[in-house]
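HOLO CASE FILE
Compound: magnesium ion
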Amino acid sequence: MNKYFQLISQHFSINQQETLSVHRIKVALETGGIALILMGVSWALLFSYLKIWPLVLIDFLILFVGLTTLFLLKKHFLRSASFVLLLGLFSLAFSIALFMDIPSLATPRVIHLYFLSLAFYAYLLLSNEKLWLRNTVFVLLLCIFLIFSSTNISVANSLMIPESVRHIGAWINSATAISLLCLVLHIMQSDFILRTQIGNELSQALWENQFELYYQPQVNAQGVVFGSEALIRWNHPTRGVVSPAEFIPLAESIGLMNPIGFWVLNESCKQLSVWKNDAKMSSLSISINVSAHQFYGQEFVSKVLSNVKRMEIDPKLLKLELTESILIQNIEEVISKMHALKAAGIGISLDDFGTGYSSLSYLKRLPLDQLKIDQSFIKDILNSPHDQAIAKTIISLGRDLELKVIAEGVESQQQQTFLLNNNCHAFQGYWFSPPVPVNLFCQFVAQSQRSQRE
Ligand code: C2E
Ligand code: MG
Ligand code: MG
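Model generated. Tokens follow.
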């Protein structure tokens, strides 16, 4: 049984940055694209041999849809690739069913079987779309399958496939459509097994203390470390250190982000209380990331406040990083919770700023302390006038609203110099240090304090 899980995990092995649902969509797109290419080529060869040129043209269209899907997948345009695959396959299957694969007494119509496979394919590929869209497409495709299966609906014309070819085609198309259906059900089932397995492992990880906080230094304009961002890592017993980008979306989808988030809060407060008695570390702040689900939880504010009180730490040293996505749901609730936290002295930072929903009028009403320029704008800041303009705008917006601005993802001295010249207050990124375990972070602080004194 364990071996079976391992095999499935290998087949579905996901890299550090790839979430489970993205990986599943990639597998489905890849197999769908390859299946279309094989189908297009083999039917094109057969119809070329029979010199039925209009049907060869249709097969080239099938080939084109398959190639375009794989091309878009290679370029990481997953959404476009999904829509090309679904719309392409739908239009082709619909036209063939209506105009070419016309049922006769000798041979039934089979092309409509693809609508059944397509319905499940669409259900899988549209898993990150709005629920209504996913369900409507699924039901619509099943209805079309039902209509073609239960009626002889068709339009007689000169493009009808010859009876002799339809006879062989009936076997080939039925087998291909059923294989595609089995494949997509297999992907769904494997995904379900893997999710359940990782879900169980995640709950176990909490009990068995497999999570660890790494700390990434935050440095001010004078080069002095004033704090850190605590970033969670999962020390998986067999997979090694697992990045949060991989397990947080899953933890969120199975409702585990709340306990994990409170573990992070508790650990950070504990760390602040340890550093309280260490002269070198006592003034350093810790920023923690808070997921929307955790923030909207009933007990969020009271738990933060009780932790701060219980550990007897300075609330000013605890900073909560919220993302703009939190603001979409219920802005009044967000503002009132932020005010309650702010009143207790806790700092609030808006993470990944510039990538999401930012209404300037709301921004004015939020009791924020800090804006964090998203790393996507820093990456190409030296070459992209567009990114330069965005970074400069965020810095001057921060200054106008009397907020500190920190740039994340600073990877070179030139990037830091550019930001410094444009009055950015603070920096975080690999140029200073990657996120590291607590002992290495303390060494980094000691080293940087020594070089400040020299
Ligand atoms: P984030 O809060 O925006 O954190 C910054 C991410 O950028 C971190 O990735 C960090 O390792 C990475 N980073 C820092 N400097 C650089 C750089 O110079 N170059 C590049 N390329 N990357 C840099 P990490 O640790 O993998 O975390 C990813 C995301 O996972 C975080 O993004 C945050 O949204 C989430 N996350 C991490 N820990 C927690 C947590 O405890 N709770 C919650 N809710 N989310 C967390
Ligand atoms: Mg963050
Ligand atoms: Mg960020």
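CASE NOTES: The radius of gyration is 28 Å. DSSP finds 18 helices and nine strands in the chain.
CLOSED: yes
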